[in-house]
Design goal:
It contains 5 helices and no strands. It is mainly alpha-helical and 121 residues long. The two termini are 24 Å apart.
């Protein structure tokens, strides 16, 4: 299978993310480790039976941030405009994945252009 088709099923539809092998870099031989899946009921049971933790500062303890989710919604709003509101869900998802890949440095237009130019020589 070509590198370009690694996220596509044989019929051309997008694979589920859990079925894709991810690499940190296209030249890497070893894929990134898969995040283990957990049974939701087991996760809930574990949460409910875990001991309470004391904290003076809930914000520091929580350590979470709304920034990544806000960025995702903002990015989605840029992709789906009034002029592009008829995108199929799979196309919208693929565009969002590509945008994230470019933003996170997993995909480089410059590198890909250089590789394409080298193929033409």
């Amino acid at each position: 299978m070509s590198q370009d088709a690694c996220a596509l099923n044989a019929d051309g539809s997008l694979k589920d993310a859990s079925d894709i092998t991810f690499f940190n870099d296209p030249d890497d031989d070893v894929p990134l480790p898969q995040v283990p899946t957990c049974d939701p009921l087991q996760e809930l049971s574990s949460y409910l039976t875990s001991p309470l933790e004391e904290t003076d500062n809930i914000v520091v303890w929580w350590g979470g941030s709304a920034v990544p989710s806000e960025r995702a919604f903002s990015s989605g709003g840029i992709t789906s405009t009034l002029h592009r509101n008829a995108l199929a869900p799979a196309t919208f998802s693929a565009l969002q994945l590509l945008k994230a890949g470019y933003r996170n440095g997993h995909v480089s237009a410059a590198t890909e252009a250089e590789e394409f130019a080298a193929m033409l020589d």
